[in-house]
Specification:
Elements lengths: L5 H6 L13 H20 L4 H22 L2
């Protein structure tokens, strides 16, 4: 189950990469704040080029945090 609706994903496919429920529980906890913030951005900021940039940069941060959590 996704925190995003199929309609939201269809309108803005980038948002699918903020899903976290498929991850192991420790990584879900690490990813969850980014998913919640992405949902906030998606629902409060009009769709335009700058919103896409904001989501892309947010995704970079989420990816780095998850990688940092699994590095040894």
């Amino acid at each position: 189950m996704s925190i995003f609706t199929p309609e939201q994903i269809q309108l803005d496919p980038l948002i699918q990469f903020f899903d976290y429920e498929h991850l192991p529980s420790a990584l879900q906890e690490r990813s969850k704040p980014w998913g919640e913030l992405a949902l906030h951005v998606l629902t409060t900021i009009p769709r335009n080029a700058e919103r896409t940039v904001a989501l892309r940069k947010l995704l970079e941060g989420k990816d780095a945090a998850v990688r940092a959590s699994i590095q040894r």
